[in-house]
## 1
Amino acid sequence: MVLCRQEEIIMEKGYIQLYTGNGKGKTTAAFGLALRAAMAGKRIYIGQFIKGIAYEETKCTKYISGIDIEQYGTGCLIDREPDKDDRKRAVAGLERCKEALTNGKYDVVIMDEITITIFFHLLSDEEVISAIQARKNEIEVILTGRYASDKLIAAADLVSEMREVKHYYSQGILSRKGIDC
């Protein structure tokens, strides 16, 4: 099996990749793909749902051309119930992603934490899947987040599950700048 050819391959068809599970690394994997795509001259749009904090990875736009990032959140939903503002931001974010999926400006569209919006009923499976299916055929789509629904898994071409086996958070270690956030 040939894993990678050095000659340029024109993307005639983009696939849907889904990174899910309770383990660390879903967003990191998506940003790694964005870096790889940018280094190949591709244009990337990253829509971060739920998130509203300028994490370290969002600074990549200062150093790497071809990556646009927008955030559609106010922060974490772990310690509170989503409200109308969260729904409004999720809907607005999906609209921006729909534009990125159809306007011809991007080769890769990453919808970071999109599964969380479905899990908390801010968006539906049908809304997200419809947006993805309406994309230009050659656009690669990356979806991330815990709790991916069976419908989203079925719609994806590639599904990777990050599974926590052991994590230093359970020892009281907080997020470390540049490593975890």
## 2
Amino acid sequence: MDYFNTDERDKQRSFSKVRDTVFSPLVSLLIKVGATPNQVSLAGVLFLILTSLLPASWPVAATVGMAFYVLCDGIDGPLARRAGKVHAGGALIDIVADQAGVVFLSAAAIYHFGAWGPAMVLFASSYMIFIGLALYANGLGVKLRRFLRCKYVFFLLYLGSLYLARDLVTWFCGAFAAYYVAETIEALRRIHRFHAREHRERTTGGTPAP
């Protein structure tokens, strides 16, 4: 799903309603104990960091840690909506926490089961740069072409690598690194074209150049 363009926003809202219903009892408990959405987001990042630091020989513990990370990512939004704390600052923290898994697990994959460093670095870098550009384009109203989001597949492959004690991520991440580099170039082209058009319109008194 591409939730960064207007075509998918209705689907995202529908998904959010279902998620809010599923997590309603847990959200009610968190409100009772005074937990904030930002605290939940940061708790998820702590679970992620712990998972990255666990020995490769502890795949079950890593799975539990990742489950809590994903759970926190799923809860912070419903908690913010229920508590009336939805705002741009909280959304930014949520986005950073949501995407941090790609960075931490890419590094952990190199250390724990010998994933190829250049592929993992390029994958994490290109993914994060593209996601940042997608958010920027969304704020400008620049429509990007539909794109693939491979984060959860990567998480599963990482855990599978721990269980099997073999590298399952290098080829996958190498392929998606190339894909995100291409999407980054295309996103930059569209954003540049948008700003160039705005500049022409300003300098010609509101009349687009032919």
## 3
Amino acid sequence: MRALMLGTGLLLLTACSFEFVKLAPGADKVRVVRKTQDMGACQKRGEIEVSVKDRLGPYSRDAIRVRDELETLARNEAPSLKADTVQPKDEPNDGVQRFLAFRCDGAPIPPAQTTRETQGAETRPLQD
């Protein structure tokens, strides 16, 4: 019984030890647009693949936190490609996601078509 309690305690302690991904210098200027957004006014700079742990053994991390960390990592990588905008290329899969990187230089990006589910929704990275 004592071994079971110790093992459970260690699992909980380990599950809570994930570090939060922080924005790197310059990443705060990188925009994130929807997957369906028309990026015709911008120059494609490349693709970015990022990954985070999405589970630890049987413990699955919160999907929203995983997405947020993946987005933050993509924003962190964008300046190295001289990109100012990132767009998800696909959905996260096992803690891995690909983004397209664009240089828009302030070009107006037409608003993406909204759906009933996303209308009025806004996402922002977690801040300390």
